[in-house]
Write a structure and sequence with these properties.
The protein contains one helix and no strands. By secondary structure, it is mainly alpha-helical.
Length: 100
């Protein structure tokens, strides 16, 4: 008798657990779909961020080259002008001292 009762209890427990497991499976499937959607969105954002980074890196490199070219152009100008300014100041000072 106990074995019949045990089998009956197991059968009832199994019958009751099927809808619960089906419910859990449905929830799990829904969560999986939501996660797949989120992963797809994150992959799109990552691809966009990678594109943006590549564009910014290219812009930075171009600006660095332009900056170096401008600095190279500026160096000769500084030496030419600085010599003339110093000479003209000295010349003016010497004229002022002679007039006094």
């Amino acid at each position: 008798m106990t074995s019949k009762n045990t089998w009956a209890i197991l059968a009832v427990a199994a019958a009751l657990s099927l809808p619960l497991s089906a419910c859990k499976d449905t929830q799990t499937l829904q969560q999986n779909e939501q996660l797949k959607t989120q992963v797809a969105e994150l992959q799109k954002e990552n691809a966009q961020a990678t594109s943006d980074l590549a564009a910014m890196t290219a812009s930075r490199d171009a600006l660095t080259k332009e900056n170096e070219a401008l600095r190279a152009e500026l160096k000769p100008r500084k030496t030419k002008h600085s010599g003339k300014k110093a000479a003209s100041r000295k010349h003016r000072r010497s004229q002022d001292s002679q007039q006094n």
